[in-house]
Amino acid sequence: MQSIIKPSAIALLVIAGQTHAAGFQLAEQSATGLGRAFAGEAAIADNASVLGRNPGAITRFKQTAFSGGFIYIRPQVDIEGRVSDKFVTPVGSLPTGNKSADASDVAGDAWVPNLYVVTPLNERLSLGLSLSSQYGLGIEMPKGYSAGHFGNVSDIKTVELGTALAYQFTPFFSAGMGLSLIRGEGEVGGTFPHQDKIAKHLEGTGNELGWNIGVLLTPSEQTRIGLTYRNGVDLKLKGDAIGIDGQGQTFKDTGNLVLPLPATAEFALFQQLTDKLALHGSVNWTNWSKFVGLDAELDHQGPMHIKDENWQDSWRYALGMTYQVAPKWQLRSGIAYDESPVPAANRTISIPDSDRIWYSLGMGYQYSKALSVDVGVTLIDGKKVGVHESFTQPVRLPNGVPAQYQSNFDGTSEGDAWLAGAQLSYLF
Signal sequence span per UniProt (predicted)? Predict the structure, then answer.
């Protein structure tokens, strides 16, 4: 059975593979930042892409600035383990065996584009426009996967159209605020391995408004401090659902699923040490504790519980370096530690997540006073972690007898990724 909702044109712009910040958050707002592991991103403001992190920093541009590019994501997510299941009937249990539940490369490649335009309206007031993505996830298990009932597809796509205004109160202090129209699509589902029968499947689309604020402190031209906050929203996705009722019968319905998108905050510091060398760093916080679970409200069947999550707030720490090799050439590097928001007891194969370390390198070339090109590459090294899940679902056997389907998964998940990006920036 297939849902009748098809991907919209806007979702084709931003298709995320495995998550590359904690949970299903995306950090990939610019290729420039990618080359330094996004260390100090809310304070550096070396091109218009700073708008994706700190609206208060756009007052540094005294002429119209454009930045646009993309980041290519190549994840490698592997699942290893075994699944044991049985049918419990009024007359006894019917074990169906202990099977391998290995699956390799379950996250697809992705291209994440971004566009930013910043223009001064007068000497103190600046305007910014942006197109980017803050969240995304794409996990799909192979057809007939023996543990597919725990989750055979988790697909989240978002795109944000943003605008921001910033005001420079003094040479030391600037502040800005932005509004974003968030367009999201989501699909979650699980499929029984026997008869390839859907256990639960929901797919829908939705829109929501979000806001963000930021300040930039400039004690001197050698020192910049950025502080930002992005609010959390509850993105309501409306669409179609397939499930199994209390009698073990398959149904189709319509309804909505609320996807919690967390609040985030960043503290960033940039320090120019010499004419050629600068150090920069960031501390990021994400309010993942609001992601308690996934629950749908169906129009006819009522509440439909998808999965418990019970995540916790997470932190990210990044340190980077920029070195001016020559008047036209700049080298960047960075390292980051990204905490997983998923407690060990709540890990799932549908959102495989673990602590990870970023190793980043980047390069910029100043073609002219107006035009610059930047590239960056990152290796994300994720830990191998244990995953243990249990599943119970009422079903009806082929002979019509009602039963409880009980299943357990025990295994591991591991996710690494390569990211590569390119970006063009221009001053008008």
Answer: 1-21
